[in-house]
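Re: beginner question about structure tokens

> Can someone show what the tokenized structure looks like for a real chain? I only ever see the sequence side.

Sure, here's an example I had lying around. Input first:
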Amino acid sequence: MTKAKRVFITGVTGQDGSYMAGQLLDKGYEVHGLVRRSSTFNRSRIDHLHHDEHLPGQNLHLHYGDVTDAARMSELIHELRPHEVYNLAAQSHVRVSFDEPAYTAQATGVSTLNLLEAIRSTDKSIRFYQASTSEMFGASPPPQNEDTSFYPRSPYGVAKVYSYWITKNYREAYDMFAVNGQLFNHESPRRGETFVTRKITMAVANIVKGTQKEIWMGNLDSIRDWGYAPEYTEGMWRMLQADAPEDFVLATGSAYTIKDFLEFSFSHVGLNWEDYVRFDPKFLRPTEVDELIGDASKAERVLGWKANVLPPELARIMVDADIARLDGAKEGQF
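And the corresponding structure tokens:
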């Protein structure tokens, strides 16, 4: 009997990490996830993976640690000796990165070096995935692809540029299978509540239920390329199954404004968004990224990956999930 491949996922309790863990359990992997120790539990996105009778939950193992702790990362990589590592942990909120730039540099940038160095010193055959982002492109005009110049417009984007280049450097310097997934915005019912898409869909659900009257927003004219997170985590996995280590953009290639997402979300429940949205300048960023539209043609050509869920359907999925939550549904159902 072939022994299960072992994988280590940082950020396993997040949106992408939870979908990735479930998908890899379905594929027969032994999954190890990194969680930070805190006084409260934040594992609602993965609780179902321990209890779902259809999943081999005994193959999900959690380990305490923090990606900013180089010694702990080295210890875990040496102990687990995984076949694949997915680095999905970060301080990932763009607006917060302006308030916490130093922490963002460590948690989003230098932490990647900690993992790469742990892999290099343990076993260079371990395959490494780095969660890069469209925010690295920043002010570079769309459509953005693997050859587009970086022009980040936030401390978060700058930290991700460092992670991108250190991943590429270790690939070339040490002949490691280390890749960057340059993912454009990808959302789901498991998206963090402070991110704009989830903020909108939660507000719609609460307005429908009568527990909220309005929603305060910042810039509504930013153009984004929004996709569906479970499709993107499948793309991440495909990158590490490729014959050679290459960097890939994952995106839908579509362009919608925040106003559009508001329209999709509110109209799904028969409401006019303009009756509920109010402006608050505190939600504006010091520097804004006006337009991100990805070109994922390389991923389709090389990996056979293509996004199928576009923002109109995505908004409906998220609104329905948030309404279902208020009716008692559990996180793992989405």
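Each token stands for a local structural state, so reading them left to right follows the chain. Residues 6-189+226-253+294-309 form a domain with the Rossmann fold fold (CATH 3.40.50.720).
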